[in-house]
Amino acid sequence: MATATYVYCVVQSGRKPSTARVPAGLPGGERPGVDQVGSKMWVVHSPVPLERYGTQPLEESLRDLQWVSAIAVAHEAVVEHFAGLRGVTVIPMKLFTLFSNPDRAIAEMHRRSKRLTSLFAKLQGCEEWGVRIMHGPSRSAVKGDGRPASGTEFLTARKRARDESVAALRDSAQAADHAYALLAEIAADHRRRQQEASGVIPPLLDAAFLVPVRRRARFRALAARAADDVLQRGGRLTLTGPWPAYNFVSAAEQQA
User: Fold this and answer.
1) In angstroms, what CA-CA distances link 235 with 2, 96, 133, 139, 161?
2) SS3 248
3) Helix (H, G, I), strand (E, B) or coil at 34
4) Quick one: residue 102, left, alpha or beta (phi over 0 = left, psi -120 to 50 = alpha)?
5) Start-end of CATH 3.30.70 domains in the chain
6) Which one of 98, 171, 183, 207 is least enclosed by Cβ atoms within 10 Å?
7) Which CATH architecture has domain 3-123?
8) How high is the pLDDT of residue 234?
């Protein structure tokens, strides 16, 4: 069966990382293995069938969001396995990073080795955390048990409710900005993620933070404090992580 080489991640380790309990990887592919790229640098990859992951079948499959989601979960499971190994730093690859054969994959990672080494230095001892802040329920409404005494009173009440709603949105947006600034102070790096227009009310904040592991407890404590402040000011904060540093790797690759 004709195959391509799928790359999950590149890792830095003083010795060859163990694959004893590595997840199965992409459906239809072989279990991931590890090959050396250079000094302390290893590429995690596996053969996958071209009949499923070749250009044409892949283009057709990408229309199926459920299929793409399953692939993303399988990809992430492999990356997280290596991220969880002691003494290992991981640079996750983007979904569907494919090469014609293992030699091509190793050669390409070797070509990028200078950039990858610099990125490993940045990511070492760090993990990614996500923070999202959404609008809370409206805190204003036109109140009253019966009809307003006059049209003027009704319009006045509507204007007051509208003004209160605008003020609440402004207050919660300021709380989101404050939370971002507070958490950014102890992060090694941070960035706000841009939201694509979708007709859905966008979050007040969607951000990623690269946090040194030694500061994890402090970061989570500050996030809890920020969540209380945001809640009091009309928003809801959700903290997720830790994750492999996808957001920071992507940005670095774009600069390469």
Assistant:
1) 52, 36, 6, 11, 18
2) helix
3) strand
4) alpha
5) 3-123, 126-255
6) 171
7) 2-Layer Sandwich (3.30)
8) 80
